[in-house]
Design goal:
The chain has 619 residues and is mostly helical. It contains 29 helices and no strands.
Length: 619
C-alpha cells in the first residue's frame, strides 16, 4: 500500500511538473532536462521495483535505492553547476566520471525493466565502440576516446544525455502525453471507441474496422504500438473473436491498426517532434508530408479487412451493441475533444511553440470538461478525474523519458565516433550510388534495427545511422527520414521479432506465427509506400498539384491491387488471370506517371465489373 501511494504521488508530481512548465515556459535547457530526468528516475524505480514479489526483494530494494540516489545526485549536480557547465569547458573529474557511470547505469537498468534488453544492449554497444573502437580493424576503426572525453560528452554539456532528444522528451513530448492522458480521462477515450463502433460496426468486417479506427485514434496519442495493442486490444480482440473472426486474424488487425497510429499525424508516436528538431524543419512540414502515407495505410487496412470479410462472410456488429448517434454527439462527449483540438489548432495558427500549443489544447479541454460536467459530477469527482489524468501522464512519461535519454546517449556516441557516416559510406559503396538498391538495403536494415524498439527510439537509431546513406545518393532529407521512419516503425509487425503481434496474439490466446502472416498481409502497402515517396515527391505534398494528384492516384491503385492480390479477392473469376492482372496494376501504379495509375484503376474496376456480370449470369 505504501509503495502504491509513493507511485501515485510521484506520478502526479511528474504530471504537475510538466503542466507547470508548459504553462509558464520551461526552465533553462539543462535545468529542465535534469529535473525531468530526476523525476522520471524516481518514478521509474518506484513503478518497476527489482525483485517485486520474490524473496530477494530486499536486495532489489537496496539496488533500487542506490541507483535512484545516484541518478538524483547526478541530476542535482548538473542543476547546481549549470552556469559553469554552460559557460566553460569543464574537465571531467573522478566525481564526474562516477556520476556519469551511475546515471547511465540507472537509465539502462530502467530501460531493461520497461522495454527489455535490446535497447540497453544497443546503448552499451555504442559506449563500448566509443571507448574501444580504436582496437578494431579496417573501416570501423576510429582514433579512440578516453573515459574523460566520453564523460565530458555525455555529462558535461548539451550533446550527451542532456541533449536535444532529452529536451524534446522533457517539453514537447511530455506535454502531449499529458494532453492525451487528460483527453482520455475526460471521456475522450470512450468517445473514440463509440465513434469507431458507429462508423465501422454495420459494415462488412465491422468489428475489425472498429478496431482499426479505435486503435488508430488511440495510437496517435499513445506513442507505442505495443502499449496501444495492450490497451485497446483488450476490448477489440474479444469483440472480433465473439463475432466469429479467426483468432490470428483478430490479433493481426489490432497489431496493424495500432502500428498505423504511430505513422499518423499529428503526433506520429512523438517522432514528428524529434524529426522536426533533427531536420531543422517546421513541425507542420513534417505532419503535412505524412498525411498521404497515413491515409494510404489505413485505406489499405480497411480494403484488406473488407475483402477478407466479404469472402469469409464475417459478421456485422449487432445494432443493439452500437451506441446511438445522440449519445456519441452529446455535448459532454464531443465538447472536450473539440475544444482540445481547437486549442491545439489555435496555438499552431498563432505561431506558438508546439508545447505551448499543446498547453492551449489542455486548457480548452479542461474548460470544456468542467463546463459540461458541472451539475453532473461533484467538484471532488471532477478534480479526481483530472488528478487521475496527471497520474497516468506521469506514468506514461517514464518509458518515453528513459528511452529518449538512452537514445540521446547512443546518438552522441554515434556522432562522436562517426560510425553513422562510416556505415552510410559502406552502404553507398555496396549499392554503387543506385537509389533503388540503397533504398532496398536501408529498408531491410531498418526492419532489423527497429525490431523490439518503441517507435521514437527506433526512429532515432535509424535516422542517425541510415538516413545519411539516403541523402548521400540525392534523396531529400525529409524523404530519407520518413523512409527510414516507416520501415523502423513497421518492424513491430514484421517477423520474427514482431512485438505488437506477440501482444495481440497473447490477448487472442493464439499462436503468433499465423497472426504475423495476417499482419504482414494487412500492412503490405506500408512496405511499398516508402518507395513511392522516393518515386514521387507528391507523396510528401511537394512538387505542386499535379505531383500530389499523381501520388494520390498511385496510392489508390496500390490500396486496391495489393489487398486484392494478397487476399485472393476475385476480379474476373480466374485466379491465374487475376494474379497477372493485379501484378500489372501494381507495376503501373509504381511507375511515376499519372496516366499509368489511371490505367491501373480502370483495369481494376473494369475487371471487377466484368467479373460481377459473369457471376450474375451464372447465378
Amino acid at each position: 500500500m505504501a509503495l502504491a501511494n509513493i507511485q501515485k504521488g510521484l506520478a502526479i508530481l511528474v504530471g504537475a511538473f510538466v503542466f507547470y512548465t508548459a504553462a509558464t515556459g520551461p526552465f533553462e535547457g539543462l535545468i529542465q532536462r535534469a529535473l525531468f530526468l530526476a523525476l522520471v528516475a524516481a518514478l521509474g524505480f518506484a513503478l518497476y521495483p527489482l525483485g517485486a514479489g520474490t524473496r530477494w526483494r530486499p536486495v532489489g530494494l537496496a539496488i533500487d535505492l542506490v541507483l535512484c540516489a545516484v541518478a538524483l545526485v547526478a541530476c542535482g549536480y548538473v542543476v547546481w553547476n549549470y552556469d559553469e557547465i554552460m559557460t566553460s569547458l569543464p574537465w571531467a573529474t573522478t566525481t564526474d566520471k562516477a556520476l556519469t557511470v551511475g546515471l547511465v547505469l540507472a537509465f539502462l537498468e530502467l530501460g531493461r525493466r520497461t522495454v527489455g534488453l535490446i535497447f540497453p544492449i544497443l546503448v552499451i554497444a555504442g559506449l563500448s565502440y566509443a571507448l574501444f573502437g580504436n582496437l578494431l580493424p579496417g573501416a570501423l576503426r576510429h582514433r579512440g576516446f578516453d573515459s574523460a572525453f566520453v564523460t565530458e560528452t555525455i555529462f558535461l554539456g548539451d550533446l550527451g544525455i542532456w541533449g536535444m532528444l532529452t529536451g524534446i522528451a522533457a517539453t514537447v513530448v511530455a506535454t502531449f502525453v499529458l494532453f492525451g492522458a487528460l483527453l482520455l480521462h475526460s471521456g475522450g477515450g470512450q468517445a473514440f471507441i463509440d465513434l469507431a463502433m458507429r462508423l465501422g460496426g454495420r459494415q462488412p468486417g465491422g468489428a475489425a474496422k472498429i478496431a482499426t479506427i479505435a486503435s488508430g485514434l488511440f495510437g496517435m496519442i499513445s506513442g507505442s504500438a505495443v502499449a496501444n495493442v495492450a490497451t485497446t486490444g483488450n476490448l477489440t480482440i474479444p469483440m472480433m473473436i465473439r463475432l466469429g473472426y479467426p483468432r490470428p486474424f483478430a490479433a493481426a488487425v489490432e497489431a496493424v491498426a495500432s502500428t498505423g497510429g504511430q505513422i499518423a499525424p499529428p503526433i506520429m508516436g512523438a517522432a514528428a517532434f524529434v524529426m522536426a528538431e533533427i531536420l531543422g524543419m517546421p513541425y507542420t512540414t513534417i505532419i503535412l508530408g505524412a498525411v498521404i502515407p497515413a491515409i494510404l495505410f489505413y485505406a489499405s487496412v480497411f480494403v484488406t479487412v473488407h475483402f477478407v470479410s466479404v469472402r469469409r462472410g464475417l459478421a456485422f456488429v449487432p445494432e443493439n451493441e452500437l451506441p446511438a448517434w445522440s449519445t456519441i454527439l452529446s455535448p459532454r462527449r464531443v465538447a472536450p475533444f473539440l475544444c482540445a483540438l481547437g486549442g491545439l489548432g489555435l496555438g499552431i495558427w498563432l505561431g506558438r511553440s508546439i508545447a505551448t500549443a499543446a498547453f492551449y489544447g489542455i486548457v480548452g479541454l479542461l474548460i470544456a470538461f468542467i463546463v459540461t460536467e458541472t451539475g453532473r459530477l461533484a467538484p471532488r469527482q471532477m478534480i479526481g478525474k483530472i488528478i487521475d489524468g496527471l497520474e497516468d501522464a506521469g506514468k506514461g512519461m517514464v518509458i518515453i523519458g528513459v528511452l529518449l535519454a538512452g537514445a540521446q546517449v547512443l546518438v552522441s556516441m554515434i556522432n562522436l565516433t562517426g560510425i553513422g557516416v562510416t556505415l552510410s559510406s559502406l552502404i553507398v559503396s555496396m549499392a554503387g550510388d543506385s537509389v533503388p538498391l540503397v533504398a532496398l538495403i536501408v529498408g531491410l536494415v531498418c526492419l532489423i534495427m527497429g525490431m523490439g524498439l518503441p517507435t521514437t527510439a527506433a526512429y532515432v537509431l535509424v535516422a542517425a545511422v541510415l538516413a545519411p546513406a539516403m541523402t548521400a545518393v540525392g534523396v531529400s532529407p525529409l524523404a530519407a527520414h520518413l523512409f527510414v521512419f516507416y520501415f523502423a516503425t513497421i518492424s513491430v509487425i514484421t517477423p520474427p521479432v514482431c512485438v505488437a503481434v506477440f501482444v495481440g496474439a497473447g490477448i487472442a490466446s493464439t499462436n503468433w506465427l499465423p497472426a504475423a502472416g495476417h499482419a504482414v498481409r494487412l500492412g503490405a502497402v506500408t512496405y511499398l509506400v516508402p518507395f513511392l515517396i522516393l518515386l514521387n515527391p507528391g507523396m510528401l505534398m511537394e512538387g505542386g498539384a499535379l505531383a500530389i494528384a499523381q501520388a494520390a492516384l498511385s496510392g489508390a491503385a496500390l490500396v486496391l491491387a495489393v489487398p486484392a492480390l494478397l487476399t485472393g479477392s476475385p476480379l474476373l473469376g480466374n485466379r491465374a488471370i487475376d494474379i497477372v492482372l493485379l501484378l500489372v496494376m501494381i507495376a503501373l501504379a509504381l511507375w511515376p506517371n499519372p496516366i499509368t495509375s489511371i490505367v491501373a484503376l480502370a483495369l481494376f474496376f473494369g475487371a471487377r465489373k466484368l467479373g460481377q456480370r459473369k457471376e450474375a449470369s451464372l447465378a
